[in-house]
């Protein structure tokens, strides 16, 4: 911001529900959309002086005085050289404040109790001058700060949830952006780009980093001269145009509702809003030294608060794959039958090969064998005179079944052979074991599913014994040996169930169609079978969640959850999951009820290549048992 005034916009009360869009849009410059600016009665807030930051709540009015101290009701709460102020009230009712120490260029978190302010944590100083910041309290009540770099970018840091501030991710923003605000309920980050307009982004790091242009400078939009300070209001967003001396108020979708004239000030650059059920009070801070003025208006837009989805936390995560981009894809779990706590996780890297991890997520092996998409495994195949466990992956370089042997004694994995198929774009795979032996169900993007019977000998070979079909692209699948069935996820349409036996009919029955509960893409599938439970776990990739169904007709929904951020362990949540796997075997410790492992499409805390997240199944059971 100009004159090094860095006071973030703020919303004290109220939030909104918003559908995030993934592409830019422009406001029409038609005359029908023009809104005349209202002239309001403004009054000077003389008791606030000429603050460098302001936050207002039901509990207190707190400001950064022009000498850099935090003050309330004329009392110095914290001496220093601060600038900018934002706050939130946590679940226990405690006020949390963030300001920037101008001497150290650090965002600082304070807790306020009564009239006392205690410093809790400092974000490490970035290698740029912080030009603006805003706070976000997410669905888990974790507090993070976005700090803006006027060269173009924002860094998101988690505050107060661990022993030190944790870097979450870097977000690319327009150069010159100096003001931001976040709607906590919808997870929306608003950014004002002075020379262009008002943008919105996903504030949730587990969402795709989409942006949309809500309004732009005239003549293509409603901003007369300059997009300056921005704040959130109930049901919408407000923006101040400091050059034109106007505040624009919008609905959540960017439709201009009202424009309000601001009296002549030198630099009315920062906007703070307080609200109740029917009114807004706008506070405009003059960065030119003219103090604070306010006005109150009727405001009837309200916020629709969506029901929160239950969240379970990961207990561990694997090392990242080597390359950025869409690389990690599908896991399998190998059970060490003599020492279950030494079981392993196999994970595909569809750019390079196969990883083998221990249950702490540490890499034990990497087999650089090509573009492997999905993997599954079974136990007990006689090859070259001894018994092996066998894993099979789809190799997209050769449209083949890539076979690996696992030493039952120690879990060491080695290549065995490749079985060529006639598929043109091989994709997913799962294995099935019956009295005939081990079968591989491999699918193609065309919807073809081929069933192969594997045989041992000098090496592993295969014979195609049956072909199934769905109408469009499948990927995830899982076989149920208990009832001789095959579940297949057709990504954009439904989960289907087939008979698994090679001599059985090829017709499919719909288990669940894509819709509000199971949101396409439908991805990884796995079965949890224990204590009479037969549950199908499905990755509902479209809303970053996981659905548990009864695996027997009528396939009722057992529960739905997300995997959230475990801040204490430094593990982010999981999103855009492709493959997943479940075991109900007692693996000891936290995994005495088994575990769930999922591919994480966006690895944060901080930004890193993709990996796999591990969740103790007992935590999922506890979540499902809650009323």
Short description:
The protein is mainly β and 627 residues long. The chain has one helix and 51 strands. The strands form twelve sheets. A five-stranded mixed sheet has the order 1-24-25-26-3, with no helix packed on it.
Give the topology, please.
Layout: E1 10-11, E2 37-39, E3 43-44, E4 53-56, E5 61-64, E6 70-72, E7 75-78, E8 82-89, E9 95-101, E10 106-113, E11 116-122, E12 130-137, E13 143-149, E14 153-159, E15 166-171, E16 179-183, E17 188-193, E18 197-202, E19 211-216, E20 230-233, E21 236-241, E22 246-251, E23 256-261, E24 268-275, E25 279-286, E26 291-298, E27 311-312, E28 316-317, E29 328-334, E30 344-349, E31 353-358, E32 363-367, E33 372-383, E34 386-395, E35 400-406, E36 413-420, E37 426-434, E38 437-444, E39 448-455, E40 461-469, E41 474-480, E42 485-490, E43 494-499, E44 509-513, E45 522-530, E46 533-540, E47 545-550, E48 557-563, E49 580-583, E50 595-600, E51 611-616, H1 617-625
Parallel strand pairs: 1-24, 2-23, 27-48
Antiparallel strand pairs: 3-26, 4-5, 5-6, 6-7, 8-9, 9-10, 10-11, 12-13, 13-14, 14-15, 16-17, 17-18, 18-19, 20-21, 21-22, 22-23, 24-25, 25-26, 28-51, 29-30, 30-31, 31-32, 33-34, 34-35, 35-36, 37-38, 38-39, 39-40, 41-42, 42-43, 43-44, 45-46, 46-47, 47-48, 49-50, 50-51
Can you walk through the features of this model?
With 627 residues, this protein is mainly β. It is built from one helix and 51 strands. It has a five-stranded mixed β-sheet, with no helix packed on it. A five-stranded mixed β-sheet has the order 2-23-22-21-20, with no helix packed on it. Strand 35 (400-406) and strand 36 form a beta hairpin. The model is unreliable at 1-33 (pLDDT under 50).
């Amino acid at each position: 911001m100009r004159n090094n005034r860095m006071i973030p916009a703020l919303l004290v009360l109220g939030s909104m529900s918003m559908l995030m869009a993934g592409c830019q849009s422009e406001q029409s410059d038609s005359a029908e959309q023009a809104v005349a600016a209202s002239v309001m009665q403004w009054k000077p807030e003389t008791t606030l002086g000429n603050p460098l930051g302001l936050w207002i709540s039901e509990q207190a009015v707190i400001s950064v005085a022009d000498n850099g101290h935090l003050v309330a009701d004329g009392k110095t709460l914290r001496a220093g050289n601060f600038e900018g102020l934002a706050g939130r009230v946590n679940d226990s009712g405690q006020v949390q404040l963030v300001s920037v120490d101008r001497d150290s260029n650090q965002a600082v978190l304070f807790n306020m109790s009564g009239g006392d302010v205690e410093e809790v944590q400092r974000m490490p100083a970035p290698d740029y001058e912080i030009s603006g910041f805003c706070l976000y309290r997410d669905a888990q009540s974790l507090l993070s700060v976005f700090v803006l770099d006027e060269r173009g970018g924002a860094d998101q840091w988690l505050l107060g949830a661990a022993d030190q501030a944790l870097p979450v991710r870097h977000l690319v923003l327009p150069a010159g952006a100096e003001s931001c605000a976040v709607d906590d309920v919808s997870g929306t980050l608003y950014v004002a780009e002075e020379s262009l307009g008002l943008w919105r982004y996903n504030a949730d790091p587990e969402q795709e980093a989409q942006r949309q242009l809500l309004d732009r400078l005239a003549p293509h939009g409603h901003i007369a001269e300059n997009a300056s300070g921005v704040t959130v209001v109930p049901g919408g967003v407000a923006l101040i145009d400091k050059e034109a001396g106007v505040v624009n108020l919008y609905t959540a979708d960017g439709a201009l509702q009202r424009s309000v004239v601001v009296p002549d000030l030198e630099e009315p650059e920062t906007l703070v809003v307080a609200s109740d059920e029917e009114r807004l009070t706008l506070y405009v801070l003059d960065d030119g030294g003219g103090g604070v003025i306010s006005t109150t208006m009727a405001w009837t837009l309200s916020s629709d608060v969506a029901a929160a989805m239950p969240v379970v936390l990961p207990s561990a995560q694997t090392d990242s794959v080597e390359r950025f981009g869409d690389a990690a894809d599908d896991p399998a779990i190998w059970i060490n039958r003599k020492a279950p706590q030494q079981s392993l996780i196999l994970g595909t890297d569809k750019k390079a090969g196969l990883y083998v991890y221990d249950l702490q997520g540490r890499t034990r092996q990497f087999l650089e064998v090509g573009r492997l998409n999905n993997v599954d495994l079974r136990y007990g195949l006689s090859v070259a005179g001894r018994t092996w466990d066998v894993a099979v992956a789809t190799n997209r370089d050769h449209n083949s079944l890539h076979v690996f042997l696992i030493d039952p004694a120690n879990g060491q994995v080695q290549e065995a052979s490749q079985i060529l198929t006639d598929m043109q774009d091989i994709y997913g795979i799962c294995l099935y074991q019956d009295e005939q032996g081990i079968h591989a169900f491999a699918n193609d993007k065309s919807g073809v599913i081929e069933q192969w019977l594997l045989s041992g000998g000098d090496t592993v070979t295969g014979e195609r014994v049956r072909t199934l079909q769905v109408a469009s692209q499948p990927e995830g699948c899982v076989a149920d040996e208990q009832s001789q069935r095959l579940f297949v996820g057709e990504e954009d349409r439904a989960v289907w169930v087939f008979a698994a036996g090679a001599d059985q009919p090829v017709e499919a029955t719909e288990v669940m169609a894509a819709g509000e509960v199971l949101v396409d893409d439908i991805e990884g599938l796995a079965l949890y079978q224990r204590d009479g439970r037969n549950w199908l776990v499905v990755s509902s990739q479209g809303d970053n969640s996981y659905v548990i169904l009864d695996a027997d007709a009528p396939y009722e929904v057992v529960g739905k959850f997300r995997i959230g951020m475990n801040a204490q362990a430094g593990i982010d949540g999981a999103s855009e999951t492709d493959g997943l796997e479940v075991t109900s075997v007692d693996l000891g410790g936290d995994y005495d009820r088994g575990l769930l492992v999922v591919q994480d499409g966006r690895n944060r805390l901080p930004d890193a290549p993709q990996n796999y997240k591990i969740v103790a199944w007992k935590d999922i059971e506890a979540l499902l048992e809650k009323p």
